């Protein structure tokens, strides 16, 4: 089943990225659809999605995921 997690990060206001939305099935499809409609970058990483989907909504990601999420943000900055 398809899963998706959306992150938000405001470096001026937050210490770490937060889980903005998450879900599977139709919810995941809607998260991806909204990202595409808003021209937001999408990175497919099933292992990371599994880990991030365990984080509660609107909570900062745990420190042990910083490195993995930093790699995603690095990917995003490279494609821009």
Report on the structure:
By secondary structure, the protein is of the alpha+beta class. It has three helices and two strands. It has helices spanning 26-37, 46-52, 66-79; strands at residues 3-8, 18-24. The N and C termini lie far apart (29 Å).
Q: Please mark out the parts with pLDDT under 50 across 5 or more consecutive residues, or reply none.
A: none
Q: How many beta strands in the DSSP annotation?
A: 2
Q: What assembly state would you assign to the polypeptide chains in this entry? A: single chain
Mean pLDDT: 92
Radius of gyration: 12 Å
Number of helices: 3
What summary fits the major beta sheet? 2 strands, antiparallel
Q: Give the CA-CA distance, first to last residue.
A: 29 Å
Biggest sheet, spatial arrangement of strands: 1-2
Helix content: 40-55%
Strand content: 15-25%
Shape: globular
- The helix-strand sequence is EEHHH
What structural class do helix, strand and pairing data support? Answer: alpha+beta
